[in-house]
Write a structure and sequence with these properties.
By secondary structure, the chain is α+β, with helices and mostly antiparallel strands. The protein has one domain (about 20-85). It is built from three helices and four strands; from the N terminus they run H-E-H-E-H-E-E. It is globular, with a radius of gyration of 12 Å. The N and C termini lie far apart (about 25 Å). The structure holds S-adenosylmethionine. S-adenosylmethionine binds near residues 7, 8, 9 and 31.
């Protein structure tokens, strides 16, 4: 396991693994969309993203719920958004 300490916008901006299977978004809600943008190209088809308190990030929800977004995305258990990257 690797822990990257610091602002995720910086620590996740470089040296990402080839593929990413799972993302938990539970930091600053206004940054969810920017964090997704950093990771998106590495998400493998079928990768899961759990976004807690996603209702506070309407731009993120609009992105993952858009019909042509490349995600299957559903609200789960209150304001948790569960999204799967499609092929
Ligand atoms: C709701 S807490 C996370 C709780 C954690 N998931 C747990 O179950 O223990 C949100 C955390 O995100 C961190 N955070 C906020 N903005 C951040 C950023 N830009 N980069 C990294 N961490 C951030 C905060 O410092 C805080 O510790």
């Amino acid at each position: 396991m690797e822990i990257r300490e610091g602002d995720a916008l910086t620590t996740l901006a470089a040296n990402l693994p080839e593929t990413i299977d799972f993302v938990l978004l539970d930091g600053a809600k206004p940054l969810y969309l920017d964090i997704l943008a950093l990771l998106e190209s590495r998400l493998r088809p079928g990768a899961m993203i759990v976004a807690d308190n996603a209702d506070y990030s309407p731009d993120y929800l609009a992105r993952v719920r858009a019909p042509e977004s490349g995600y299957l995305s559903l609200p789960f258990d209150g304001d948790v958004e569960l999204s799967m990257k499609l092929g």
